[in-house]
Write a structure and sequence with these properties.
CATH class: Alpha Beta
Strand order of the largest sheet: 1-2-3-4-6-5
CATH topology: Aspartate Aminotransferase, domain 1
CATH architecture: Alpha-Beta Complex
Radius of gyration: 14 Å
Largest sheet: 6 strands, antiparallel
Order of helices and strands: HEEEEHEEHH
Number of helices: 4
Distance between the termini: 35 Å
Length: about 120
């Protein structure tokens, strides 16, 4: 998955916003809360060429995913059950989309009912 594909997919989810922060990372939010991040590495750090995708996951998914090759607890966010894909082939694109959709849902469900209605996550 490329960064453009990542951004396009996150944009397709209900009520999302995007900011670029933390050294040009693409940070995706729902209701002002982060659910997924894509960082580029390579130009100034050739030893880490490529992109890194991080996302929130359930407790069970966190436990399972962090046992997989190429997936680590996300730096600074692991305590909140976030993972980071360290290699481009750590997960198939379809699986990445499924986990990002779940991350979006996990975060959106934690928003107030009023905010969920405002962003269109739940019907009025």
């Amino acid at each position: 998955m490329t960064r453009d594909e990542f951004d396009g997919f996150c944009k397709s989810l209900i009520g999302t916003t995007n900011v670029i922060q933390w050294g040009n990372a693409s940070v995706w939010k729902v209701g002002g809360k982060i659910f997924a991040i894509c960082s580029n590495w390579g130009e100034d750090r050739p030893e880490m060429e490529g992109i890194k995708i991080s996302f929130k996951c359930s407790d069970l998914s966190y436990q399972i995913l962090t046992e997989q090759e190429g997936i680590i607890p996300a730096p600074y966010l692991a305590r909140a059950k976030w993972v980071q894909l360290e290699t481009m082939d750590a997960m198939a694109d379809g699986d990445i989309k499924d986990y990002i959709t779940e991350a979006h849902s996990i975060i959106a469900k934690k928003l107030t009912k009023k905010l969920q209605k405002e962003i269109g996550f739940v019907s009025a």
